[in-house]
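does this look right to u?? flavin-adenine dinucleotide version
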Amino acid sequence: MDWSKSWFEGFKGVLREGVDLSSKSRLGVGGRAAVLVEPWAEEDAALFLRVCAERGLPYHFLGGGSNVLIPDEGVDAFVFTIPQWNRVVRDGNRLVASAGTTLPSLIRKAKDLGLEGLESLIGIPAQVGGAVRMNAGTKEGETFDHLVSVRVAEESGEIRELERADLNPGYRDSNLGNVLITTATFELKPSNRLLIQERIKEYLLYRNRSQPVTEPSLGCIFKNPEGDAAGRLVEASGMKGAREGNIKVSEKHANYFVNLGEGTSTQVLELMGRVQEAVEKEFGILLSPEIRIWGKEPNEEK
Ligand SMILES: Cc1cc2nc3c(=O)[nH]c(=O)nc-3n(C[C@H](O)[C@H](O)[C@H](O)COP(=O)(O)OP(=O)(O)OC[C@H]3O[C@@H](n4cnc5c(N)ncnc54)[C@H](O)[C@@H]3O)c2cc1C
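got this back:
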């Protein structure tokens, strides 16, 4: 990618070229980012985005890397990453979390403050921004259930506060479009700390029993089709345990693919294709990916 630092005059933050992204992927796959962008403040992110838009420069947002499939050949693009934005501020029964805060640390903070509501999201290894972007959740509840507003940096260079009432989230999608989420505010309920702790423990026990939580994965690979569970369909199609190189359909939960070590993004895509084919042949249902797949072309995400 052809670019010049002088285009981003006024930007404060760190730019690092040729950074390996596999260590930032929960599945441990993927190549390098042309440039990793760590903005200091949301104004810096907005400025950077504006210049990218004006100059047609490609970019991606990376959160906790627990739901994106990064191509083996890497991405010829800027990749925004914000783990340094990790403040949580209390405002009455509300928690205002910077988007780089990890979801488990936000939930633990809420517990320490005696605020309930987010417990069912425990075990989702997201950052707050990624959880909002994906409307992460389980059948027990979703990120948007307790969201009151989000702040976003836009390609126009503006920072806007969006109210929950004006948003239209769907199943595993916030429908927020091409914006960098910088902050999210959650409305919670005062409760007993020990009760919250007990609920967290139960949710974690359930996860440990039913999901391969100790192995590298991207969580659920496919969305659940209406009225059914993708994991059940994959298992019933005989694909549980199927392997493509070092990527395997988990024996514990058939909607998870795990990396046995040295697996690749290409192997994930091949295995996804085989699973889709098997399920379609058996049940006539085409499973659609829940994971976000970064294409070879910049800004192309499926
Ligand atoms: C063990 C395991 C268990 C999981 N369990 C669940 C579960 O129960 N329920 C569930 O819904 N998911 C689950 N997941 C999937 C995943 O954790 C969620 O989709 C999560 O919301 C992804 O967040 P992230 O920060 O890792 O985002 P990433 O994977 O880094 O990115 C996901 C998407 O969000 C975008 N994004 C990230 N940060 C921002 C930001 N600040 N602003 C704008 N866009 C952004 C990315 O561009 C990408 O499109 C699981 C994953 C694993 C590995």
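Residues 26, 60-68, 99, 124-127, 129-131, 133-134, 136-138, 172, 180-181, 213, 217-219, 292, 301 surround flavin-adenine dinucleotide (CB under 6 Å). idk if thats expected tbh
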